[in-house]
Amino acid sequence: MYVVDVSAAASCNALKDVFSGCDALVVATSATPKMMTEPPKPGERPNFVYPPGGLPEAVDWNGQKAQFDAAKAAGIKKVVTIGSRGGTQPAEQNMLNQIGGAGTNILVWKRKAEQYLVDSGLDFTIIRAGGLLGEDKPGGKRMLVVGADDADLGARSVPRADVAEVAVQALTCADASRRSLDLVSREEGDGAPTTDFAALFRACKLGM
User: Fold this and answer.
1) What does the CA dihedral 180, 206, 80, 150 come to, rounded to 10 degrees?
2) Residue 96 and residue 99: Cα distance in Å, rounded?
3) Is the pTM of this model over 0.85?
């Protein structure tokens, strides 16, 4: 096991050796804000801040870019990256971009990193997940729904286990090559659980 601070350039240079001999990479890193105070009143938002060195620009842009560069240098053939829906919306209209202070723009930096991956020449699959449901929601129990560019998919969330399964399937499925997808799920019992992942990827957008 290797523990690396992806926001530190020197550490990311070491990734070239870590990735040596690997065929594929799944990028699930993300800036993570911490709640500092509870909401002052019911219905209001709590106060979040990012830790020192952990701003979205450092983690979601510089950190992901370093991982993609290291993957290419190491000869990795396939990269799957997990992002978030909302990146096509104006930055000021999505609350995620305001967490930790105005202008932190986590979705903006994620989207910029995704474009860098697309332009890198690496084979890729970009998974933009909806709201992640807790670990108490099992995977493999729901119909998964895919789309593009933040279109209304009739649902807004997806179990974490299902996101992980789609990422794993993307590593070996030829139909996942150079595709991006928004990913959500229906409620359990609303439709048959997804098992044909090749068909799921074929329904996705080529490129960004």
Assistant:
1) -10
2) 5
3) yes
In whole angstroms, give the CA distance from residue 191 to residue 183.
Answer: 16
Catalytic residue at 11? Answer: no
Cα 30 to its chain centre, rounded Å, is: 8
Quick one: how far is CA 41 from the chain centroid? 32
Q: What is the distance between the alpha carbons of residues 117 and 9, in angstroms, rounded to a whole number?
A: 18
Cβ atoms of 128 and 182 within 8 Å: the answer is yes
Tokens of 9: 């350039």
Catalytic residue among 30, 84, 180, 185: 84
Q: Does domain 9-206 have CATH number 3.40.50.300?
A: no
Question: What does the pLDDT look like over 46-92, one tens digit per residue?
Answer: 888 999 999 999 999 999 999 999 999 999 999 999 999 999 999 88
